[in-house]
Structures are given as structure tokens and as C-alpha cells.
Amino acid sequence: DWTPGNVIADQVAAIRAQVGDARVICGLSGGVDSSVAAALVQRAVGDQLTCVFVDHGLLRAGEAEQVERDFVAATGVKLVVRDEKQRFVGALAGHSDPETKRKIIGREFIRVFEDAARDVVDDAGAHGEEVRFLVQGTLYPDVVESGGGEGAANIKSHHNVGGLPDDLQFSLVEPLRTLFKDEVRAVGRELGVPEEIVARQPFPGPGLGIRIVGEVTAERLDTLRKADAIAREELTKAGLDDEIWQCPVVLLADVRSVGVQGDGRTYGHPIVLRPVSSEDAMTADWTRLPYDVLSVISTRITNEVSEVNRVVLDVTSKPPGTIEWE
Ligand code: XMP
């Protein structure tokens, strides 16, 4: 029988058997998957777990604060926050190929986890057990689309599956590997993960790094963060959060178009809105958002974000488009 309670019981037993007395770290993004994975591992091995929140500079506005406020408050989990903005933006410099960017981000995540693991061991002092396990909130669709499933093509290297370096020092603990998103949400609710986290829309691990088509720079990240915050604010205000699965906001950094503002010519970048409806992210349709909401978002973005002079709507289903542009 599939029930959240049974999944929890099975996974708690499996995690205990896999991990034993060792220390475990978990990359926590604040999203549904990593939060539920962390809560499961905490249920299984308690204090042996340390969560690591990596501020990689590819986050949306307000995300770091939200993790500390919602998740730690609810679970009391041990959390380490690492400011790694320079590292990620530096490593991404000069790269615009999507798979290359994904692999770089995956590799840098692991390096940060290795650094964090050393600090955890140092803090443990006398105990000094090695950190040998890394928890990841990998879901079934991530496995399939990274080419890990039966007969599946490698569509994208999800940072937590296909993008791992060959010399990985950790064994992976992936308690959600057989689950779909709605099942993860059910498990999370059963574990008492707060609704603000369980109900969150998906956000990819590589963050805004794969929502800038072209090279990732600090300035472009700022531009995209502003546009994304406006879109999210207006969608929430219009009461549409439950209706859409997610709405990636994408900056076409390699594209410019001519515009006019006031008396002057502009030559700015387009922002793409990609609202989608989906059951499990394996397939999706574009969401028919109300025109007045689209209009407000477009007007605000072009007025408030000076680098952007055009807003376009992506009306492609998945397939043939994927949800994210990279
Ligand atoms: P695509 O673009 O493949 O996205 O249609 C399907 C779902 O997965 C999310 N996504 C990711 N999630 N790490 C993640 O944790 C990743 O590397 C990644 N890439 C895409 C995407 O936001 C959508 O919900």
C-alpha cells in the first residue's frame, strides 16, 4: 500500500541501515525536495545530520532568509550557511553552453559540500567522525531525465544527478529517488514540514544560472532577479500560485532588440515568462494566464528593470519544449 506513512517507515529504516553512526550532510535549497529529504534523514538519524545552505549567487530575491525562517524554525535542524557567490559566478565566467553551465554548478556544489564536511568534522572535535554521506533530494523524474532511468535519453544533467564529478567523495543518500513531486509533498506534510515549504513551486538546483540564456554575470543575475521578483509578486497578488506549477522567468542575455522609451531609443534584452501547468513536470502545458495579469507584469518589468525593454510569453507545451530553457 502506498501511503506517506509507509514511505517514511521504509525510508527511515533504509537510511539507518545505509548510514549507521556516520555523519551526514544535506544540501538544503529551501525547496520542497531538499527540505523533505532533510526532514526524512533527520527523522532517521537526528543529530548526525548537518544541513548546508549554499548561497551561490544564483538565488532569487529573499530565498536565503526564507530557509532560515521557515525550515530551521520548524525542524530545529543544524544549519550551516555558506556564502559562495564569488566562487560560482567566477566558475561560470566565459561559459554559455547549458550543459557546461549545469556541470560547473554541480561540480562547485560538491566542492562546497566537501569544504563544509571538513568544517563539520572539525566542529565535532573529539568525535571526529568522517562525513561520508551526502543527502540529495533527487526525485524520480530527475533520474529519468538525466538519463538514469530505463531507456531514457539524457535530456538535461540535473545538478543533483547527471552533474556530479567522477571523483565524488561522498556516498549519496537519496530517499526520494522513486517518488514524484506530489508524493514528496504528501510525505513532507506527514513529517510536519511547514506548508510554506511543502506547497512551494519547484525551482531548479542550478537556480538562475540556467535561466540566463548566455553567460552568467553578476549584473545579469541582478537584472533577472528584479524581473523574477516582479513576476512572482504579481502572480501571488492575483491569487494564481496554486493554478500554476511554476513560472520560470528567463533572461535572453544574448539577444537584444530595439525599443523606445520616452524620447530615446533603447537596445535592451527580452525577458521570457514561462508559466506552466503540470502534474509531475514530465509533461506540461503553458498556462493561460489572464491578460490583465500579463499586462501588469510586462509594464512593471519594462518600467522598473532598465536593462529590459521587451517581455515575451512562452506558449510551448512540454514536449516539445522543456519547462526550463536550459
Ligand atoms: P525541465 O526543464 O527538464 O524541468 O522540463 C522539469 C522540472 O525540473 C526542474 N529542474 C531541476 N530541478 N535540479 C533540480 O532540482 C535541476 O538541475 C533541474 N533542472 C530542471 C524544473 O524547474 C522543472 O520543475
TrEMBL record:
Keywords: ATP-binding, Glutamine amidotransferase, GMP biosynthesis, Ligase, Nucleotide-binding, Purine biosynthesis. One of its GO terms (cellular component) is cytosol. It comes from the Bacteria. ATP binds at residues 29-35. Its EC number is 6.3.5.2. It catalyses: XMP + L-glutamine + ATP + H2O = GMP + L-glutamate + AMP + diphosphate + 2 H(+). Homodimer. This is GMP synthase [glutamine-hydrolyzing]. It comes from Cellulosimicrobium arenosum. The gene is guaA. The chain holds residues 198 to 523 of 523 of the full protein.
